């Protein structure tokens, strides 16, 4: 098992768990909330089969990484990612972020530049700016996020159950593209996350990534389902092509938020075609 130390709390190391497999050009896969790096398993298999080196890691507070009480902001998440890239001395990297992982991609480039980065991928991302504001009318009402926070405070396990129903659009795809076993596994992974992280990450979703994405000059792929109930397509992926010059948008027809599982073939095809360019 491999770890990189990214900080300390009360004299104890804060460590990120990561896995590093294969040879070739490196692709770093950054998971969504409230899962872990293994949620990319269908993409990892396709990438390894195509000859890429694949690195996954668990965000602080989730999976097998440390669960500190602090650091649940994108500045810290980006610093954690930077520590991993420096630890592995990676260059020529494709950074691929799913959901809140897209925030790491944006903030990392916004803060640390593109010297290590070859390409960027946003899959169903929280970027560019989720919350509705006077200068962001396309966003989602603050009341929605306030409601999520209250649900988590009241009963985070009940919240997870409903969250994953909409994560996979289970009412549409149960028994065809997603099984009850997958829903159960996702619930169990989420249940093992830090209660503190589960709550604190909701506020992090509301960070404004527009200044970060404006700094992206590397080739960029955006992939999202048009039936995403977690991060609405019109508020997220649909807006990025206008903010990232030369970026490519692939819309997965009828795709939910969890396109990496329910529509893995479509996501994998888009990802591999983009990497080969």
Describe how the helices and strands are arranged.
Elements: E1 2-9, E2 12-21, E3 26-30, H1 41-49, E4 53-57, H2 74-88, E5 93-98, H3 101-112, E6 117-123, H4 142-167, H5 170-173, H6 180-191, H7 195-204, H8 210-213, E7 220-225, H9 240-243, E8 248-252, H10 259-262, H11 264-276
Summarize the structure.
The protein has 277 residues and is of the alpha/beta class. It has helices at residues 41-49, 74-88, 101-112, 142-167, 170-173, 180-191, 195-204, 210-213, 240-243, 259-262, 264-276; strands spanning 2-9, 12-21, 26-30, 53-57, 93-98, 117-123, 220-225, 248-252.
C-alpha geometry: globular
* The CATH superfamily title: Alpha/Beta hydrolase fold, catalytic domain
According to CATH, the fold-level topology is Rossmann fold
Write out the strand line-up for the largest beta sheet, numbering strands in chain order.
Answer: 1-2-4-3-5-6-7-8
Task: Report the oligomer.
Answer: single chain
Whole-number count of domains:
1
What does the radius of gyration come to? 17 Å
CATH class: Alpha Beta
Q: What percentage of the residues does DSSP assign to strands (E)?
A: 15-25%
**SSE-based structural type:** alpha/beta
Helix content range of the residues, please?
A: 40-55%
What does this 3D model show about the protein?
The longest helix has 26 residues, at 142-167. Helix 1 crosses helix 11 (264-276) and helix 4 packs across helix 7 (195-204). Helix content is 41%, strand content 19%. It has a single domain, classed as Rossmann fold, CATH 3.40.50. An eight-stranded mixed sheet has the order 1-2-4-3-5-6-7-8, with helices on both faces. The chain is of the alpha/beta class and 277 residues long. It has helices at 41-49, 74-88, 101-112, 142-167, 170-173, 180-191, 195-204, 210-213, 240-243, 259-262, 264-276, and strands at residues 2-9, 12-21, 26-30, 53-57, 93-98, 117-123, 220-225, 248-252. The chain contains eleven helices and eight strands. It is globular, with a radius of gyration of 17 Å.
